[in-house]
Specification:
This protein has helices at about 5-15, 15-35, 40-65, 80-100. The chain is an all-alpha fold. It contains four helices and no strands.
Length: about 100
């Protein structure tokens, strides 16, 4: 038996609900992609949803970097200001681009 097979078997037994939900999501996604005649529209719609979720995700990441990291890994001072500015600029460009693309 290969070592990877043992690890895979242990993982599948340790989290059965995760794998069931993951498998169901893959099947629902495949069925959804199979029913939509224009997959380009689906790709563009998914990217627009991603753009509007980007500020929330980057916000959580900046907060985690500033508060949850310990010691030298913690973001603070001028580097925190730089990270917040870069995240804000990225989110603004993404949202403006999505709005421009929708209109």
């Amino acid at each position: 038996m290969l070592p990877g097979t043992v690890a895979r078997r242990m993982l599948s037994r340790s989290a059965p609900w995760f794998y069931a939900v993951y498998g169901a999501c893959v099947l629902v996604g495949a069925a959804l992609a199979g029913t939509i005649p224009n997959l380009i529209w689906l790709t563009i719609a998914a990217q627009i949803v991603n753009v509007f979720l980007l500020p929330m995700v980057l916000g959580f990441l900046v907060v985690l970097a500033a508060l949850s990291l310990s010691g030298p890994g913690r973001v603070r001072g001028w580097y925190l200001s730089f990270v917040v500015t870069a995240a804000t600029a990225t989110c603004a460009c993404a949202v403006l681009g999505a709005i421009h693309g929708i209109l």
